[in-house]
Structure formats: C-alpha cells, structure tokens
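Session log. Operator J.P. requested a structure for one protein chain; no other inputs attached. Running the standard single-chain path with token output.
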Amino acid sequence: MNTKKFSINKACAIIGTVIAVASASLLAILYLLTENYIVVLCGLVFILLVLFCGILLVSVMRRKLTLFSESICRTLDDMMAGDTEPHLLDTEEENLFYKINHRLVRLYEVMRENRRSIAKEREELQELISDISHQVKTPIANLKMIDATLLEQSVPEEKRRDFLKAMGGQIDKLDFLMQAMVKTSRLETGVISLDKRKQPIYDTLAAALGGILLNAEKKNIEVSVSCPEMLEVVHDRKWTSEALFNILDNAVKYTPSGGKICVSVESWEVYIKIDITDTGKGIAESCHGTIFKRFYREEEVHDIEGIGIGLYLAREIITMQEGYIKVLSDIGKGSTFSVFLPHK
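Structure written below.
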C-alpha cells in the first residue's frame, strides 16, 4: 500500500467501517449468547457512547491540529516577510504544539535580529566608505593639481620646493587618515584585544602628555598636571594613552596661544576621574553629542588641522573598558572632558 497517498479522511472512513462491522458483530454475538434484547440494547448504548467519545476526541484533535498548522503557516509567512510580528498561539499550556510554535517564534526573532545586524553593518560600511571618500578627495585633488603644475610648467627652484612641501603635507594627511582608519576598523571589528591590568594611571597619562608637549610649547600653552603617582586602575595602557592623547591633542589645537591646559586625576569609589580642562573656544551645548561622531568637525574650525576622528576613537577605547566620557563646555569659556574608568 502506498502510504504517501493515503489521506487522513480515507483512514478515518476505513477505521469507522471496521468499528461499525466489529460493533455489529459484537451485538450479534451478545444476542446469540443471551437472547436478551435488553443486554443487546445496553451493549448498543455502550458502543454508541464509546463511538461518540471517540468522534469527539478526534474532532478536538483535528481542530487543534488545524489551528496549529494555520499558526505554523502564519509564523513561516512572517519569517519570510520579515516585517511583521510573529504569531503566537493563544494558550499558555506547556503542550507539544506550544513548544514547537514557541521555538519557531524564537527562530524568527533570531533571524530578524540577524537581518537587522546585517542591515546595520551594511549601513555603517556605506557610511564609512562615504566618509573615507569625502576625506580623501581634497588631498588627492591637491596632489593632482601640484603634480600637474610641476609637470606642465617651468617652476623656479624656490617655488618648486614650496610645492614639494605642500605635497609632503598632503601625503602626511593621507597617511594620518589611513592610520586612523586602520585603528577605527580594528576597534569596530573587535580585532583589538585589550590587555587590561591593574597599573598606575600616572605612567599612562605621562605617555599621552609626551605627545602634545612640543606643540603646546610652540603655542606657549601652560600645561599643569595633578595626578597621584601610586594611583592604580585596571586599564590597557597603550590604548588608554591613545584615547587621552586624542583629547589632549584637541585641547592644544583649539586653545589659543598663551592659554592653559589643566589635567587632574581623582579617585572615586567606583571610578577614577581624569579631567582635561582647556581655555579654548568652547563647544556649544547642542554639539556635545555630535562631536564624538566619526569625521565630525564644526564649520568654524575647518581652518585648523585635523580630520575629526580623535574624539570618536577616544570614546570607543574608553567604552571598550566599561568607562565613559563627559563634556562640560561653554562658548568662549573653554571645555572640560572628564574620562571615567572603573577601578575593576
């Protein structure tokens, strides 16, 4: 017999026929054995009652199977559509139907989350490509212009050296941009493995300050530091130094000549707090959130060297160590960047 083509309705019809024949045979045997119509009638009532219960049970099961199959179909349709909430069974019973439906819904939620993650990554990749192309466009255009001038025109030696210096500056800018992008990529993709250990924050801060002292001296900016030498905190020295350097470098860039930069470190119960205060131009309150975006720069500071990625990197590095950064600033009154790192 080909069971693949054997429908449930046909099976029910055959089972019903068998039961009817068996019941008639049983009643006939009862009559032959007892020759009592009352016994036969009681047997008939019993058989009818059993048949009724059986039909009722089959009907209920059939109804439940139908509802369950419809629910499964709706859930599968939702999974394929991907833009609607999955259908849940209207029951709180821990039965087989509910368990299967619950797992399908969980599968749907996992698939939807994966789609969102992929869409977010694609959007971030497109944004990154757009940012890179925007940042690279100007130096490349400048290099092409200088190259064409040197090739096509007769330029005096002194002017030629100026052009070559300008080319060197544009190449340095591209190199800095590429290095920043590599660091950003390594941070965002989780390639970097932070080596967090309990160690003095004084040495980390000293390494960051070493990178900005020369530029601060050129602008006659006074830098003062207040940090306990033996204060220890769990952190990655290399990357925390990179984050602090980026904040300090911004402070030097946007503080006018003769200004001041004050660095102070305090130990709190849960965090250590590193304040970097400058006497620069200040930041409007409306921009306190946007300054940490990748490649963000205010319109009025485009004449100052930079690509707008330092604060973004600083926030990513500190966040990876379960810390955070706060900003207090007013236009014309300078800024204070507070870096919080947990003790453990």
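Operator note: The two ends are 72 Å apart (CA to CA).
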